């Protein structure tokens, strides 16, 4: 017996941790700053971290299968009903549930190129095929309804990332709506808002239909509410809980029942759920994170001696020439960034927004590397 042959399958290119890099270079981990995985520059939400400590004595219990408190709190946040919230083991877990809920063998999905690799991977796991639409790199990367619709050929699921990883660009809500409108009724549009807290653009949850038809965080919006749009969010970025693996999808009301048929028995772990619930009250941490990310984007844009693409996330994409060489030189100088070769951008690196000090360090080191 052999495992399935997934040899032509894209692999998930997880960023390497500080310990791994330090070991490779025979140095102490304290000598490194990691700005490679779009993690939170201030660490976890303090309220979330406190909940983690407090939950330690309860972890011999299974979580409640419906995670009711957290789900109700998230539903309240977005003005949707509880059963529209599909809790999962990270945004990645929510992508798995969506693939399980939508794909029949042989169905295709349409994903951005360059883009987040896990969309295609989970489609393949679920016996789906993958086609791509271009995120055009003309005068900056642009995410347009036309590019998606020109490539669209009846795929079952269309993935939109907004803000987009790795470019930092975003779709307008009009574009999302146009894509949902112009694709078949049986096509689902997934709007991945993993970096949604970092942009001031309205969330696509405004488009998702609820029971009474007046959904979304902005009840005044006059947008039509849809049955073919799902929005993905995560606690990994602005809330600083990446290690706990907690994310969710907001689905149309009509989808409510499907969750029970596709989810893992305990979709998210007890510690993650308690921490997530606490972190949702931690406005101070989120605001500080979002403000610092905005500052860091601006600082990097102004001070890096290379082209920095406009970003709405907690990272920037920078055109540096030989990305692998520049990322390697930075690593030796103690700064770990993301070489975007695996995204098909072998002349770009992606730098996560750090604290003031980290951001100033990476800019200074990068400028020296570029001048060499
Ligand atoms: N979507 C995008 C665009 C991402 O960049 C990431 C994480 N890097 C995710 C989803 C998944 O995040 P998580 O599973 O940590 O919630």
UniProtKB/TrEMBL annotation:
**Coiled coil region boundaries:** none
Q: Which terms does the UniProt entry file under GO BP?
A: L-histidine biosynthetic process
The protein's Enzyme Commission number = 2.6.1.9
InterPro entries listed in its UniProt record: Aminotrans_II_pyridoxalP_BS (IPR001917), Aminotransferase_I/II_large (IPR004839), HisP_aminotrans (IPR005861), HistidinolP_aminotransfase (IPR050106), PyrdxlP-dep_Trfase (IPR015424), PyrdxlP-dep_Trfase_major (IPR015421), PyrdxlP-dep_Trfase_small (IPR015422)
Domain Aminotransferase class I/classII large, by residue range, is: 31-364
Q: Kind of enzyme, top EC level?
A: transferase
Q: Which cofactor does it need?
A: pyridoxal 5'-phosphate
Pathway field: Amino-acid biosynthesis; L-histidine biosynthesis; L-histidine from 5-phospho-alpha-D-ribose 1-diphosphate: step 7/9
Catalyses which reaction(s): L-histidinol phosphate + 2-oxoglutarate = 3-(imidazol-4-yl)-2-oxopropyl phosphate + L-glutamate
Alphabetical list of PROSITE patterns matching this protein? AA_TRANSFER_CLASS_2
Keywords associated with the record: Amino-acid biosynthesis, Aminotransferase, Histidine biosynthesis, Pyridoxal phosphate, Transferase
Q: Which parts of the sequence carry N6-(pyridoxal phosphate)lysine?
A: 237
Molecular function (Gene Ontology), one example: histidinol-phosphate transaminase activity
Give the family this protein belongs to, as stated in its UniProt record. Answer: Belongs to the class-II pyridoxal-phosphate-dependent aminotransferase family. Histidinol-phosphate aminotransferase subfamily.
* NCBIfam families in UniProt: hisC
Q: What is this protein called?
A: Histidinol-phosphate aminotransferase
Q: Which gene encodes it?
A: hisC
